[in-house]
Amino acid sequence: MVQWLRGGNVYDVAKGVYRRADIRIDGGRIAALADNAKPSGDDRVLDVGGAYLLPGLIDCHVHLCVPTAITDVAGLWHGSLPGEIAIYAAEAAKRTLLGGVTTARDVGGWDYHEIAVRNAVNRGEIMGPRLLCAGRLLSITTATTAFYPGMYETADGPEEVRRAARKQLAHGADLIKVMCTGALTSSEYEDARAIQYTLEEIQAAVAIAEENYKHCAAHAHAAAGIRNAALAGCRSVEHGSFGDEEVYGLMAEKGTYLVPTTCVTSAMLADNAVAAGLTPFVKERYIEFDDIHLKNMDLAKRVGVPVAMGTDAGTPGNHHGDNAQELVRMVDGAGFTAHEAVHAATLGAATMLRREADLGSLDIGKFADVVGYADDPLADITAIRDVRLVMKGGEVARNDL
């Protein structure tokens, strides 16, 4: 059935301007943008009354299986009953969609429950964003693997990495995720500034991914880890916290995308219960490095690194469904303009995912993924969290206009 979104202010992400237009939707895709359209009698029409319409947001870094209210990061899902994790992930997917995210990349699930959720979403059985899943993330032997037994796949050396990457693809993964450095939400014996996978190991993962028409995402905080990820051909660097002008310049040269995840600390501190109960050394790490992280994200942007939005939803207090807070943090904390943040969450993210032909802008031929707002997020970025309309592939998931 042909549908119309009539009377909206449609944002052109490429040009950074609005256009008053009616959107014609046919077969789940945008068929036309028209002024003062005259739908036929059989068309379904939704009058959006001057709402501000943006492309559906794309979050390139989520963990749908990780409960965000948990403060003991060493105790995730211990003693859980069969089915609990999948049920949680399905609800997290629903909340993510209702929060305006129509496409999300899960870069570390839990025993492939998130892939089951992806498949159920694709079959239309449950609500959720369009999902791309990494399966288990690949890690060296480290104390943190005990924290995340369903998320980490331990592999040491290039041959084990190749085998582990193939295993994720066999379980239906859409990409491969590798740990190039230590993490912050980790064991006290792990340092985020330390190297984990070597260049040769990362190259092995990238080769398997690219040979199978997939891409490789690299968790990397330290400058040396960022350099290895870029040199190995990773499509994206997640976090990128402790880089410098040299390594960001290398990323820009190689076309390696940065997924900044700037809201992790602010989200944690905004949830009083989580902030009060969080494992002390983890909380201290986040607070200690937050300012450095924000300043370096601004530096990376100025150097010319391409950026795709990602929240790390699943970290403590970083709740599924409030993903749009990342754009606010990018603007208020990391030096992005509102347009730059929106571009990173739409066309920039789509291009990083190699899905720009289908996603990322409100152009003819693309999926009708639309989020609507009563107030203009480009004038006040905080409005991006007040989602009133969500449409994915021409289907309305939420309408509070």
Characterization of this structure:
It is a single chain. The chain has about 400 residues and is an alpha/beta fold. It folds into two domains: about 90 residues, Urease, subunit C, domain 1 (Roll), CATH 2.30.40.10; about 300 residues, Metal-dependent hydrolases (TIM Barrel). About 35% of the residues lie in helices and about 20% in strands.
Quick rundown:
This protein has 401 residues and is of the alpha/beta class. It is 33% helix and 22% strand. The chain folds into 2 domains: 3-55 and 362-399, Urease, subunit C, domain 1 (Roll); 57-352, Alpha-Beta Barrel (TIM Barrel).
Q: Helix and strand string, N-terminal first?
A: EEEEEEHEHEEEHEHEHEHEHHHHHHEEE
CATH third-tier fold name of the largest domain: TIM Barrel
User: What is the assigned CATH homologous superfamily of the largest domain?
Assistant: Metal-dependent hydrolases
Which parts are unreliable, with pLDDT below 50 for 5 consecutive residues or more?
A: none
Task: Provide the β-strand percentage band.
Answer: 15-25%
- The number of helices is 12
Rg computed from alpha carbons, rounded to a whole number of angstroms: 20 Å
Tell the overall outline: globular
Helical content class: 25-40%
Oligomerization status of the protein chains: single chain
* Tally of domains: 2
Q: Span from first to last CA?
A: 22 Å
Can you tell me the CATH architecture of the largest domain?
Alpha-Beta Barrel
What kind of sheet is the major sheet?
8 strands, mixed
CATH class of the largest domain: Alpha Beta
